């Protein structure tokens, strides 16, 4: 039981730190990575449940445009909105936060950049350099590199 309590405390600390980052990094035009991760978790849950964004807007008592900007990750959800959204989606706020933290962990992994000699963050939308893509394709096809 103590292990479970420790795990829960660790998770709550991660959520607290994530929320602190969300408050510090959010700007009016661009949401923080935490805001975008939480928005992605809510969008995924909307898709899984088969519910529409307009229904969520009605539940949150917000305009469709306001909810759309929050679901895009441009603006953070307030805690009362997050609670109402979780209830609407038949899940808990904790489950949404865990999903967001998993999303952040997937897109925020440090990797060693051999050319620069320092750690950089993986951007899941970034295209690989042409040479790396060709080399990877050759390796996948087991083709000897051409010179």
Quick rundown:
The chain is mainly alpha-helical and 147 residues long.
List the topology elements:
Blueprint: H1 2-25, H2 33-49, H3 53-60, H4 64-71, H5 79-88, H6 93-107, E1 110-113, E2 118-121, H7 130-141
Antiparallel strand pairs: 1-2
Helix pairs in contact: 2-6, 3-4
Structure, described:
This protein is mainly alpha-helical and 147 residues long. It folds into 2 domains: 2-107, lambda repressor-like DNA-binding domains (434 Repressor (Amino-terminal Domain)); 111-141, no CATH class. The protein is built from 7 helices and 2 strands, in the order H-H-H-H-H-H-E-E-H. The protein has helices spanning 2-25, 33-49, 53-60, 64-71, 79-88, 93-107, 130-141, and strands at 110-113, 118-121. Strands 1-2 form a two-stranded antiparallel sheet. A hairpin with a 4-residue loop joins strand 1 (110-113) and strand 2. The protein is globular, with a radius of gyration of 20 Å. The protein starts with a helix and ends in a 6-residue tail after the last helix. Residues 109-119 have low confidence and may be disordered.
For the structure shown, list the relevant keywords.
mainly alpha; 434 Repressor (Amino-terminal Domain); 2 strands; globular
* Spatial order of the strands forming the largest sheet: 1-2
Percent in strands: 5-15%
Give the number of DSSP strands: 2
What name does the CATH topology of the largest domain carry? 434 Repressor (Amino-terminal Domain)
Helices and strands: which structural class? mainly alpha
State the end-to-end distance.
61 Å
Continuous helix count = 7
Low-pLDDT segments, ≥5 res: 109-119
**Architecture per CATH nomenclature, i.e. the level-2 architecture of the largest domain:** Orthogonal Bundle
What's the CATH C level of the largest domain? Answer: Mainly Alpha
């Amino acid at each position: 039981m103590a292990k479970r309590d420790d795990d829960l405390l660790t998770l709550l600390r991660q959520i607290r730190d994530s929320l602190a980052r969300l408050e510090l990094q959010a700007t009016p035009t661009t949401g923080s990575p935490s805001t975008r991760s939480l928005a992605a978790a809510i969008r995924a849950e909307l898709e899984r449940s088969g519910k529409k964004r307009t229904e969520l807007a009605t539940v949150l008592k917000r305009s469709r445009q306001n909810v759309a900007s929050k679901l895009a990750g441009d603006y953070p959800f307030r805690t009362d909105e997050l609670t109402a959204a979780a209830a609407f989606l038949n899940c808990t706020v904790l489950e949404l936060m865990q999903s967001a933290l998993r999303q952040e962990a997937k897109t925020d992994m440090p990797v060693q950049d051999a050319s620069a000699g320092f750690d950089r963050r993986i951007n899941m939308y970034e295209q690989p350099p042409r040479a790396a893509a060709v080399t990877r394709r050759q390796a996948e096809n087991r083709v000897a590199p051409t010179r």
